[in-house]
Amino acid sequence: MKQIEGERSEIVQKGKAYFKDFMRLCSLYKLTSVRLDQNDEEDEEGPSNSNKSRESSLQEMANQRQSKIERYKEQKRIIAELKELRTHVEKSHVEEEVERKYYMLLLKHWINTVIDEYENIKFELQILEQRPNMAHCHQRQPKEPSQKKSFRPFIITKDQLQKKVLGAGYPSLPTLTIEEFYDQKIKEGTLQIPTGQSLHDWAVEPEKKANDADQKEAEDDEKEDADDPEALAKARAWDDWKDDIRRGDGNRNNMG
């Protein structure tokens, strides 16, 4: 990288010298009154001249800006005239005055180009001269990798309790059967032994409810056949209730 910067700086210095030599010759031939050497001397004296006021500096900057604007307008006009005159110059027979005007405009075009490019060359040289110092100032030592604290997971109480009930994302497997659970509770004395037609009996024996219903219906039929007074009175009361209350009475929501 340093070798490339050194080569570039040498090339730019040569270009600056060629520009200055070109402008010196043009000045000798009375083609321009601009001297690049004079501008360099003013730049070198500028920082040491403490008497130079702020207002004069601003005025000088305004003059330079105005000069650039005028050169830009002049360049546009010169390029347009050169295009027009080139068609005449390229002919086999061309008038001497036309040819002279063409080359004078071409010299003027390059004089303006050199003036603008010379400022760019000086600016690039300043950057190339200051780059080693800037690189040294901005050189930073690599930072030591900081030790990051290990992340310690935390458990929310709600999630923890939920996992105890539902399991870790899937239903937990039962550890006891229903019979073992009831036997354990009976041994602990926290559950009374059910008697009669209870939900427990129907849960243990799903067919018990149907069997009990069939047995009860058979007993009622036997009592009616035996002319049991209690069974006959109950049957008559049921018939009277069905006669008095029609089907659907009391169903006021669905109406039917």
UniProtKB/TrEMBL annotation:
A single GO BP term for this record reads: regulation of dephosphorylation
Which InterPro entries does the entry link to?
A: TAP42/TAP46-like_sf, TAP46-like
Q: Where is the composition biased (Basic and acidic residues)?
A: 202-216, 231-250
Which GO-annotated molecular functions does the record name?
Answer: protein phosphatase 2A binding
Q: Which residues fall in a compositionally biased region of kind Acidic residues? A: 217-230
One Gene Ontology cellular component term attached to this UniProt record is: cytosol
Cite the Pfam families for this sequence. Answer: TAP42 (PF04177)
Provide the residue span(s) of the region labelled Disordered: 37-69, 197-256
**What's the protein here called?**
Immunoglobulin-binding protein 1-like
Tell me the organism.
Answer: Octopus vulgaris
Its ancestry begins with: Eukaryota, Metazoa, Spiralia, Lophotrochozoa, Mollusca
